[in-house]
Amino acid sequence: MRFSGRTVIVTGAASGIGAETARLFAREGATVFASDIDDDGGARLAAETQGDVRFVHCDVTDTASIKALMDHAAAETGGIDVVFNNAAAGGALAPIDEIEPSEWDGTMDLVLRSVAFGIRYAVPHMKGRRGASIVNVSSVAAVGPGYSPTAYAVAKAGVLHLTKCAAADLARHDIRVNAIQPGFINTNIFTSSIEVPEEMKEMAKAVIAQQSANAQPVKRGGQPADIAEAVAYLASDAAGFVTGTSLVVDGGITIGPRHSWDPEEETLFAGLQKMQEEAEAAAAGSPAGSAAS
Ligand SMILES: NC(=O)c1ccc[n+]([C@@H]2O[C@H](COP(=O)([O-])OP(=O)(O)OC[C@H]3O[C@@H](n4cnc5c(N)ncnc54)[C@H](O)[C@@H]3O)[C@@H](O)[C@H]2O)c1
Predict the structure, then answer these.
(1) Model pTM?
(2) Whose CA is nearest to atom 1 of ligand 1?
(3) Among this protein's residues, is 152 annotated catalytic?
(4) How much of the chain exceeds pLDDT 70, in percent?
(5) What strands lie across the sheet with 246-249, from one edge to the other?
(6) Ligand 1 atom with least separation from CA of 42
(7) 7-256 architecture in CATH?
(8) What is the per-residue pLDDT across 74-116, written as a single tens digit (0 to 9) for each?
(9) Which of 8, 132, 155, 239 has CB atoms 3.0–4.6 Å from 111's, for a disulfide?
């Protein structure tokens, strides 16, 4: 068991990637402080998961709430070994020419500032712990436009840079800091920022799973367990030489446009290739030394 005797914090643990990762850490022997603003979901997770999972209410947009979570976990167990800064939502949907300042700030607070202060208030309890490690959730949205609304994409790109800067700052305390960049993962996030009935949420999840499966080299929808396994690796001693980096776990969706990996798809240069083949065929068919040469 990779995390026996370790204290692990998971934010946004009531649903999706956070819930699955909390379950994995608990299975592997950790004491998991699973936090969220969804008290019912958090309580359900703690009740239904085998192992030591303790739910703590924490709103990651509230720095006092983050500090209270970290102080509570350390007071109960003596310190913190692993922090998984995971909580977020899709944030503001507006494009850059329409977004309001409050929408921008709200998204930055939830997606980026939350991670900064998740690190800030955990680290005093992580110093001197062997194998201390922080994993932050970024996204393929940080690779380029088109995967998410703009404010979220910018905040997730910020999480990547924050990860590198924090890895540098915290090297002196032997704390590793890395990020994970999930692709399209089958969770509630696609509808969590908009008001839709429950059955439509399930429909939206199914549509996105199908569309992403068709758009990526790995021909299935991404699951929370795909991310949980990668997070556990980054948090574990097996990744002891890994810090300040990011792991993209996306079924290959960011490797390039479909024609670059799908043998059924016509390649970008198919037209040129065809012209060349036609020219070669014509040259082969024409008599040697003809006037055309
Ligand atoms: N699902 C994807 O395709 C995908 C892709 C890239 C990145 N991500 C990232 O993965 C992380 C987890 O998302 P998910 O897909 O599991 O979504 P999810 O909606 O299933 O889970 C997010 C959890 O965060 C909680 N949360 C929201 N606001 C909070 C707050 N202020 N304080 C504390 N908790 C809060 C929610 O209650 C929920 O339980 C997020 O950082 C998200 O941006 C997800």
Answers:
(1) 0.94
(2) 185
(3) yes
(4) 97
(5) 52-57, 31-36, 7-11, 82-85, 133-137, 176-182, 246-249
(6) 39
(7) 3-Layer(aba) Sandwich (3.40)
(8) 999 999 999 999 999 999 999 999 999 999 999 999 999 999 9
(9) 155
